[in-house]
Amino acid sequence: MRVLLATLFLLLSPALAALEAQVDRTQLARNETLQLVIELTEQDGDGEPDLSPLHQDFEIINSSQSQQIQIISGLRSASRRVIVNLSPKREGTLIIPALKLGNASTAPIAIQITEERLASAAAGSDVFLEVEIDESKPYVQAQVVYTVRVHTAVNLEDAGLSDIEVDDLLVQRLGDDLRYRSQVGGRTYHVIERRYALFAQSSGSIEIPPMRLTAQVPDKRRNRDFNTSPFGADPFQRMFGATKPISVASRSIHLQVQPRPADAPPGPWLPARAVALKEDWAPEPPVFRVGEPVTRSLTLTARGLTASQLPELNADVGAHFKVYPDQPNTETTTQGVFVLGRRVEKQALIPTQAGTVTLPSLELNWWNTAENRIETAMIASRQVEVLPAALTGQSPLAATPEPLQPSLPAETTNAPTAASPTEFWPWVSAALAGLWMLTLWAWWRSKHIDSPEKRRPADHRSASLRDIGNACRNGDPASTRTALLNWARQRWPNDPPEGPQAIAQRLQNPAVVEQLMEMERHLYRGEPQAAWDGKACWSALKSALAADNNGKPPEEALPPLYPAR
Question: pTM for this structure?
Answer without folding.
Answer: 0.61
